[in-house]
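Fold it.
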Amino acid sequence: MKQMQKYLYFALLALFFLLGLTLRAKLYIASNVFSDDECRLVLSILNKNIWESFLFLGSAQSAPPLFIFCTKMITAVFGFSEHAAKFIPFVSSVAAIYFFYKCCTQYFKKNYTRLAAVFIFAICQPLIAFSSIFKQYSTDVLIACICLYYFPKIKEFDRKKLIITGVGICILPFISLPSLFFIGAFLLKNFKNTFKLLLPLAATMILYYFFNLAPAKLDLDTHFPNYWNDGFFGFSFSDFLRFLVLNIKFYFVPNTFSLPAIILFIWGICLFIREKCSYILLSLLLVFMAAFMHIYPLSGRVGLYFIPVMIIFMLKPLETGKWIAVAVVLVFFSFCKYDLNYMKNITTFDYFVSCSPKNLLEVIKDKFNPKKDIVLCNSASTPSYLFYSNKLGFYTDNIFEMPLTSTEKEAVFHYLNGLQNGKGYWFYLVKDYNNFRLYPQIFEWLKGENVKYSFNERDSYLFYVEK
């Protein structure tokens, strides 16, 4: 009987791993476009050599130097295509499934808890989505899983192992900045044996900070002030709950029942305290301290690395013996939206990709009249235009970003009504920022204009208007 249970356990593990791999591979193969944020990152590194990867990127972009360095190496060999640039995030996301399973063997005693955790990790929407996005966030998840598994296993600190560990912790932040939370937890837990590593780590991080992180933070604040404020919390308990709810809803979309998830999370913390699992608790403490002190936000994609930590804490109550029925009910309500409809959605490309910059630009390239036509972009669409116009070999000086500083209808109409008569205007609208929405006003203005051509695909819009 035990042998049959063992076979079933490993069969289900293999099935869940294959499911996670298939979902990520299918999306990766279909992902032949960059979003606006990816285009910003691409534009910031295209004209830089490999060694400039270690310096400040500009364009309100920041990415770990070794992530950019390895991407430059891959694209130097295979050319700068979407698939080449997304290769590291894809491989990282697949490897993360394996290392998350290894974490589960360390933090869970029961096989059914491990299976539940791996299944949730395999089908988690943000983890699948960012597996094919040219950003460092999937790599953050992989490094988090590796740290959660390996650091607690380091028990011996002879000279050779201390040197190897020291080199490793000095390199990790150049691959994934959030690795500092897990490194910090390791150093604190083993301070008597690891205090000698503080000096080389501090020296490395000071150089990294002044040549990369500090100018990147200043540049981000200039372009997008207060952009990550939702990832911080203050003294009040209500603000902390807001912070937790925000992250839970992002991590486990489309699940919306935050209360059972919060109960499971706090319950899990209590259980790990009882088991004296100091490493994962110290990691959690450092993450929350950074968010509380406004050092590093825990919000959206920059907090993607926290998903494996969250799953581990939330599923720990499944191992509570007599309270297991309560834990099962809470887990059910926390993840009940992972139903058949959700499973169907995550197999489709359009569920993850909501823009179509390349196809819109191909239309402009085919129909553009250089004698009278002008291309107008909103600020969220300009990076996509700049990258794909260069990629498709379409060059024109008649491209302008609409200089709108307000989304008020009066301000938008005033600018659009002031456009020069006798010209044709291509409105290239790939994306609209949630906190600076221009689409509704532009669409309303277009109703009274001479629209000669319109096309939309995946929430991206193209209009041609003659004045």
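The mean pLDDT is 91.
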